[in-house]
Amino acid sequence: MDKAYEAWQKAPTPENLTALIGAASPVIDSALSSYGSGDPALRGRAKILAVGAVRSFDPKQGVALKTHLMNQLKPLHREAAHRSTVVSVPEKMLADSHQLYRSEQEFIDEHGREPNVTELAARTGYSPDRIAKVREAAKPAVAESLGVPGTGASHQPGVQRTNPQQIWLEFVHHDLGNIDKKILEWKKGLYGQPVLANQEIAQRLNLSPGAVSQRSARIAARLAEGLPPALTGDMT
Questions:
Q1: What are the pLDDT digits (tens) for 139-171?
Q2: What is the C-alpha to C-alpha distance for residues 39 and 41, in angstroms, rounded to an integer?
Q3: In this structure, is residue 204 part of a structural domain?
Q4: Domain that residue 43 falls in
Q5: Integer Cα distance of 201 and 214 in angstroms
Q6: Residue 8 lies in a domain
Q7: What is the mean pLDDT of the chain?
């Protein structure tokens, strides 16, 4: 793995990055076993975390690459908790939740990032509103297991279609590019997504925090055309 890392450092091409992640497979397998309950469905997410780990690795810190990688794969514990606690929902909703998860993992494997709701809707055939409802149905059990509060429905598209602010939010989302759509979903908690800080968004989209901040600022400027400052200030 160290030689693959050196090759990627000298020539950070997609091909060398793919080779490096391949060389890191034993570490990823170990992390899946330790943090992900051995769930093979989490491999796509593990690869995304691994990419972020090798990009943030600094040999000068005196920590081995394998150790750094294992530390950065710890969020798999949250993902495993999500999958193991989605049990107290109706059978149809549970089936839809599993389908959403499988589709998200397939998209991650193919594109190296998580899909926005438009991309996920196209892949599953579910409407964005259906995706939001499925995610919301599963959220209480997940929140309880992790000891964090669930996200309310006030930001969920489809809840208050007569609200001009909500309509404008959906309008802006529709017109954004795929990456910016995902950023907006995470910044505003749209379609059942958690609200994330720029640092985690950057890691999950394989962008720099600065790039996420710049994109967020542009999105905020667009939102400001139809929303009061109080509703756009949390975008940066």
A1: 544 333 333 333 333 344 443 444 667 777 887
A2: 5
A3: no
A4: 1-85
A5: 13
A6: yes
A7: 80
Non-local CB neighbours of 194 within 8 Å, separated by 6+ positions: 151, 186
Placement of tokens 């795929």 in the chain: 178
The answer as to whether 50 is a domain residue is yes
Cα(226)–Cα(172) distance, integer angstroms: 9
- The arithmetic mean of pLDDT across residues 207-236, rounded, is 83
Instruction: State the distance between the two ends of the chain, measured CA to CA, in whole angstroms.
Output: 37
Contact 106, 123 (CB under 8 A): yes
Does residue 54 sit within a domain?
yes
Is the CB of residue 181 less than 8 Å from the CB of residue 138? no
Q: How many angstroms separate the Cα of 186 from the Cα of each of 40, 139, 192, 234?
A: 25, 15, 9, 11
**CA dist., res. 112 & res. 106, Å (int):** 10
Total number of domains in the chain: 1
Q: Count of alpha carbons within 13 Å of 193, Cβ hemisphere only?
A: 23
Residue 142 makes CB contacts below 8 A (sequence gap 6+) with 81, 82, 85, 86
Q: What does the block give as tokens for 63?
A: 């920590």
Model confidence at 233, pLDDT cuts 50, 70, 90, reads low
